[in-house]
Amino acid sequence: MTDAVLTLAHLNKRFGALQATRDVTLDLRPGEIHALIGPNGAGKSTLIAQIAGSLKPDSGGIHLAGQEITSLSVAQRARLGLGRSFQVSSLAEPLTVLRNVMIATQALQGHSFRFWKPVHRDESLLTPATAALERMELTHRADTPVSELSHGERRQVEVACALALTPRVLLLDEPMAGLGPEGSARLTELLETLKHEVPILLVEHDMDAVFRLADRISVLVAGGVIAHGDSAAIRANPQVREAYLGD
Ligand SMILES: Nc1ncnc2c1ncn2[C@@H]1O[C@H](COP(=O)(O)OP(=O)(O)OP(=O)(O)O)[C@@H](O)[C@H]1O
């Protein structure tokens, strides 16, 4: 056995006749970025949804830090240390960066009945939110409304929201989407440092970012993993080149 923090074993998921996840087995180890790549419709988002808990697999198991989480709810998984960011932004535009991260923390902590205590004075939210902003190098933007941020900074805030609950693992679904070269380079740098604290399962179409960041890559085609290896091995794999890289 490895010392994996997250393990998927023989996951299967069908939507009617379509096998969206096909016997997927993979793991995420401390200190690494494991990238999941594949053409549109390969089943990457479906897999992330099963890990996060919004979709139940038909069969197979998911373990987080040695604990089986396959049938736990999204909130239970989040509390056990499954952090994630989303393809679609869920930030509140008029609120400040700090307030957004505090609200995300509060939502994930499941304390929806703390109305007697103003959010902005709650140390149990302020302390982790401030630390998460620092890790994403956003401290200087804490009091800026999200509406004034660049696209790249918003992505950093989204990752900070996930980090505020000090997750054991981080699921990032296309964090580079829509970023220009500068924003993408900046986020790449941040993730390169972050992985040493929190291992990252990364779904990403930006292949430059994937090849630079990933310690291991799994290639998903038609729901199944067709190849697995480091960047050099994946680049050189003829099956992958044919199925995905286009030559
Ligand atoms: N709720 C659903 N009901 C039926 N089919 C679905 C559902 N969700 C996804 N699918 C199908 O499952 C397949 C995998 O979709 P998925 O979104 O996981 O792919 P993906 O690799 O994330 O694609 P992309 O890179 O475009 O985001 C697709 O054929 C999709 O149409």
From TrEMBL:
Q: Where is the ABC transporter domain?
A: 6-247
Cite the Gene3D superfamilies for this sequence.
Answer: P-loop containing nucleotide triphosphate hydrolases
Alphabetized PANTHER family for the sequence: ABC TRANSPORTER ATP-BINDING PROTEIN (PTHR45772:SF2), CONSERVED COMPONENT OF ABC TRANSPORTER FOR NATURAL AMINO ACIDS-RELATED (PTHR45772)
Q: What is the official name of this protein in its record?
A: ABC transporter ATP-binding protein
Return the InterPro entries for the record: AAA+_ATPase, ABC_AA/LPS_Transport, ABC_transporter-like_ATP-bd, BCA_ABC_TP_C, P-loop_NTPase
Sorted alphabetically, the keyword list is: ATP-binding, Nucleotide-binding, Transport
GO cellular component annotations, sorted alphabetically? plasma membrane
Taxonomic placement: Bacteria, Pseudomonadati, Pseudomonadota, Gammaproteobacteria, Oceanospirillales
Q: Which terms in the Gene Ontology molecular function aspect does this entry carry?
A: ATP binding; ATP hydrolysis activity
